[in-house]
Amino acid sequence: MHIMIIGGAGMLGQKLASAILANGEPLTTGCKKLTLVDIVEPDVALIKSGSICEGIEIETITGDFSDGLRLSQIASERPDVIYHLAAVVSGEAEANFDKGYEANVKASWGLLEALRAEHEASLGGYCPRVVFSSSLAVYGPPFPDVVGEEFYLRPASCYGTQKAMVELLVSDYSRRGFIDGISVRLPTIVVRPGRPNAAASSFLSSIIREPLKGEKTILPVSPSSVVWVSSPKVTIENFVRTGLLSAKETAETRVMNLPGLKVSVGEMIDGLKEVGGSELAELIVPETDEVVSKIVLSWPSQFVTERAVQLGLIGDVDFVSIVRQHVEETSAQ
Amino acid sequence: MHIMIIGGAGMLGQKLASAILANGEPLTTGCKKLTLVDIVEPDVALIKSGSICEGIEIETITGDFSDGLRLSQIASERPDVIYHLAAVVSGEAEANFDKGYEANVKASWGLLEALRAEHEASLGGYCPRVVFSSSLAVYGPPFPDVVGEEFYLRPASCYGTQKAMVELLVSDYSRRGFIDGISVRLPTIVVRPGRPNAAASSFLSSIIREPLKGEKTILPVSPSSVVWVSSPKVTIENFVRTGLLSAKETAETRVMNLPGLKVSVGEMIDGLKEVGGSELAELIVPETDEVVSKIVLSWPSQFVTERAVQLGLIGDVDFVSIVRQHVEETSAQ
Asked: Which residues of A are the active-site residues?
């Protein structure tokens, strides 16, 4: 099996690559070649660290993914499973209208077209599994308390619009048999390693990550705010499992919300205290940011994810486990 | 006011143009110029017949709407209201994958981009009302008995996918203030004038139209089949009203299902008998077509249309009135 990750240098892309290379993982034992595609060079040494990765060829393709020629090159390798994780993130897609549509819609559509060309060149024999990383931003307010699986798409951002458009394309190209695609909508990933970023959700990682390093951090929302999160490890496991669903399973479910954990910010801080000690909470400085509060309160905090659960996908069991996972991963590095 | 109809040579486009030219219509008295855009030359003489159209300049632009240069030309006229009715129909969009996406998504997107360029060239002063003619094909089975306004988009055809993608674009370009757009999803239009076409719904017009001309016609489905229809006149009236909604109203409702009439095929035939005489039913020859039956039974037969009703849009009151309307219109020609 040849697995390709587009966006292979990103946080999730690198973690997914590591998981695939960990040959002990029973779900991925069939992988013989792993290709990482990104606009920046993926850190292959980091990806390999701690993995067995015997007998797996690793290839990197670095360059602009919206380049038509490169898309043909990518497709001509006829990978069996393609994870499409590359995106211009929400803030940037809103600030730079053209760049967002170019990268998030046109380049994704170009990829599907390149795969369709290979499908046709192979007289229909080539039909890759495509796992498209989508977002709950395809929804928009007002929301019901729990968002059902048949709730309609009304994105309130360029990013959400772009993700919804590509979901539609992935489903239609799959319905026509050119690819075997599935779109998965991710919860907010917590705890992200590294530094804070410009995302409104960034503090959700910072309030755990920084105190564990002994650093102060700001809490811009009320502790009663409720969010929908998933740990990196569970998200990666769900990517792996989605890539290996049967064609019959994806034929019935072309789009799904991944399982998440509904948790209040106060409960998150309790989890931090349980793992790292009560004194860590003192490093979290409440300083309400009305803009961030408004954005976070506009997000739905619970989704029905029955389809995903029926397909064997998993959620985090509690927030304490998510904090422990982060501590284990950072201490291992 | 300058009104433009893209798809101005089609059945609905021509009827809409006639309605706008009928200056007596209080809703459209502000129109000073009407531009008809289509790949074939619109029949201006036919459109003018029976209309007052004093003081309204009529312009036609004939050519391929997917041509970028032409799109810039169209936009550079800065029409106040643009009706976008042009489409490759469902059967053709499914049979010719590339053509469908080119015409139904890329050309529509190109139009929005050309309007955005004018918006920016005018430093934001130009922000036209865009009424996009969408379709209930954005939905896909299985359906609830009544499809609610928050039911999700899961198109089961290329055509439905394409319409859903453009709805998303119209909403996002509107949210960003480049245009003031609204997408309206039409019921099946009955009675269509002219000849039968390749659409699975074609017989719904034929079973009324042909007997009224004394011609035999085939009924391919059971009389108990229930459908969701709208007359040409009511549909046109709804287009006119949608074009004249306030910016506040469209800001709250960027997509809506137009009101329709839920009616069984048997009730349609009863309406024909009431208007034209019982003997006309003998010209309808039952001859079940499994393919057509399956398609028609897969369509939802009732939709919630509260948003449209609140905005003052209307539905047909009963099927007898629809038959009478057809008789009046054909005898007037």
From this structure: 159
Q: Do A230 and A286 meet the contact criterion of CB atoms below 8 Å apart?
A: no
Please list the residue range(s) of chain A that carry CATH number 3.90.25.10: 187-231+259-301+317-333
ipTM value for the complex: 0.94
Query: In a mutagenesis test of the A interface, which of B161, B178, B182, B307 is the best target, namely the one with the most A β-carbons within 10 Å?
Result: B161
Cβ-defined contact of A155 to B169 (cutoff 8 Å) = no
Domain with CATH 3.40.50.720 in chain A: 2-186+232-258+302-316
Mutation for testing the B interface, residue in A102, A157, A158, A168 having most B CBs under 10 Å: A168
DSSP B23-60: TT-GGGTT--EEEEEESS---HHHHHTT---TT-EEEE
| Superfamily of the domain at A187-231+259-301+317-333 | UDP-galactose 4-epimerase, domain 1 (3.90.25.10)
Question: Cα distance from A181 to chain B (closest Cα, Å)?
Answer: 14
Beta bridge partners of A9: none
The CATH number given to A2-186+232-258+302-316 is: 3.40.50.720
The architecture (CATH level 2) of B187-230+259-301+316-333 comes to: Alpha-Beta Complex (3.90)
- The reply to whether residue A154 touches residue B171, judged by beta carbons under 8 angstroms, is yes
> How does strand B226-230 pair with strand B57-62?
unpaired
- pTM for this prediction: 0.95
Q: Which residue of A has its CA nearest to B154?
A: A168
Question: With contacts defined as CB-CB under 8 Å, which chain A residues touch B155?
Answer: 168, 171-172
Please give the CATH topology (third level) of the domain spanning B2-186+231-258+302-315.
Rossmann fold (3.40.50)
In angstroms, the CA A229 to CA A204 distance is 9
Please give chain B's pLDDT, 333 residues, in tens.
899 999 999 999 999 999 888 865 555 668 889 999 999 998 888 888 766 666 788 999 998 877 777 899 999 999 999 999 999 988 889 999 999 999 999 999 999 999 999 999 999 999 999 999 999 999 998 889 899 989 999 999 999 999 999 999 999 999 999 999 999 999 999 999 988 887 788 999 999 999 999 999 999 999 999 999 999 999 999 999 999 999 999 999 999 999 999 999 999 999 999 999 999 999 999 999 998 888 888 888 899 999 999 999 999 999 999 999 999 988 876
Q: What are the residue ranges of CATH 3.40.50.720 in chain B?
A: 2-186+231-258+302-315
As a whole number of angstroms, the distance between CA A33 and CA B288 comes to: 54
Q: Are strands A129-135 and A226-230 parallel, antiparallel or unpaired?
A: unpaired
Q: Where do the CATH 3.90.25.10 domains begin and end in chain B?
A: 187-230+259-301+316-333
Neighbours of B222 (CB within 10 A): 14
> Is residue B159 among the annotated active site residues?
yes
